[in-house]
Design the sequence.
């Protein structure tokens, strides 16, 4: 199965700053990469699919890029509600697999 | 708006079978060409994909879980279910149901915490 490795494990930032999260796949997934946000006690929420397409209702400060094995989620100008854990997931092959998560915390 | 809600026992004894149900509203599980999925999250860990049911019949299971898992659907109730046999403490997790296409998982239900303990 495809292994996804996220970095860093934790990102400490202040509101207004830019967050850059990385996801690397053990083999090419093309552009079949999604990003989710998860807050404590809640289900994950889809942010990005197809590497760069924003899901319905997701603010424009969230953007995704990359292809093949290297992907990036960028959050421009962090807002208080953006502090959460972010997971990447490949939707290229079965079984679907997820990265271990990046915790974006308030500095 | 599609909504999913998972339900089931919060406590299961080791070696027993877990049965969870996901009730879907706002859309039919038998139309639209969607995959209806189960995912779990063990305490302090990441997300693990379990499997799906598609078109109320075709199923797929993660290979490492295939011998213990089955997913079925009841179209009359617009729900799908997960059965997992021979539970151990390692199966303690929050279990989520979610809708997906060939792309990502776009609607998720609130998870159900299942603890395996005697």
Sequence:
């Amino acid at each position: 199965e495809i292994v996804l490795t996220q970095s860093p494990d934790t990102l400490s930032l202040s509101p207004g700053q830019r967050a850059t999260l990385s996801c690397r796949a053990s083999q090419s997934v093309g552009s079949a990469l999604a990003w989710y946000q998860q807050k404590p006690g809640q289900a994950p929420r889809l942010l990005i699919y197809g590497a760069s397409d924003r899901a319905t209702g997701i603010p424009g400060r969230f953007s995704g890029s990359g292809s093949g094995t290297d992907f990036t989620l960028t959050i421009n100008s962090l807002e208080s509600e953006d502090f959460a854990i972010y997971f990447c997931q490949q939707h290229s092959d079965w079984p679907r697999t997820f990265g271990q998560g990046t915790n974006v915390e308030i500095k | 708006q599609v909504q999913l809600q998972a339900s089931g026992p919060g406590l299961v004894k080791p070696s027993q079978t877990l049965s969870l149900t996901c009730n879907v509203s706002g859309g039919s599980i038998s139309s639209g060409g969607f995959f209806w999925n189960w995912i779990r999250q063990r305490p302090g860990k990441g997300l693990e994909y379990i499997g799906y049911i598609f078109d109320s019949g075709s199923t797929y299971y993660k290979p490492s879980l295939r011998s213990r898992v089955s997913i079925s659907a009841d179209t009359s109730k617009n729900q799908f279910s997960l059965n997992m046999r021979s539970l151990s403490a390692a199966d303690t997790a929050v279990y989520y149901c979610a809708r997906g296409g060939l792309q990502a998982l776009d609607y998720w239900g609130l998870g159900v915490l299942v603890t395996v303990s005697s």
Q: What stands out?
A: The mean pLDDT of chain A is 96. Chain A touches chain B at residues 1, 32, 34, 36, 42-46, 49-50, 55, 87, 89, 91, 94-101 (CB under 8 Å).
